[in-house]
Specification:
The protein is mostly helical. The chain is built from 3 helices and no strands.
């Protein structure tokens, strides 16, 4: 049996949805990685505060200042990367919603078309039956 145009379009829509899903999945994974890195940095800062408070020598040679500079630079870089991911996530989510909607709409059209064909076949059968009885 030959596939209808709607079925071909449904396959294309499903492929597009999977493509959009892969994009958003990669963005979400990157977001999780960056948020974990920021949380790890926060844990390191808390640990370092207690350690540096106990070590007077690091403060006397400026180690604490260098540490704070590194923490600030690292936090800024991670937050910048996170902002880029979040900025690209919104259009990707919009694309995913759009492709999902197309896929659902095509599924409904195919079901509707199949129902129409069944009804039409039932009508033809009924008409043939009436014609046969006459």
């Amino acid at each position: 049996m030959e596939r209808s145009r709607l079925e071909v379009l449904r396959e294309i829509a499903a492929a597009k949805y999977l493509q959009e899903y892969r994009v958003i999945a990669a963005l979400l994974a990157e977001e999780v990685r960056l948020r974990r890195a920021l949380a790890q940095l926060d844990r390191q800062v808390r640990t370092a505060h207690t350690t540096l408070a106990d070590t007077v020598g690091a403060q006397s040679i400026g180690g604490d200042v260098l540490w704070q500079v590194w923490v600030g630079r690292t936090r800024r870089d991670l937050n910048l990367q996170l902002a880029k991911v979040m900025a690209s996530k919104e259009p990707a989510m919009a694309g995913l919603r759009r492709s999902f909607g197309r896929r659902v709409a095509l599924d409904r059209l195919i079901v509707s078309e199949a129902d129409g064909r069944r009804r039409m076949a039932a009508r033809r059968f009924e008409q043939d039956l009436i014609a046969f009885r006459s």
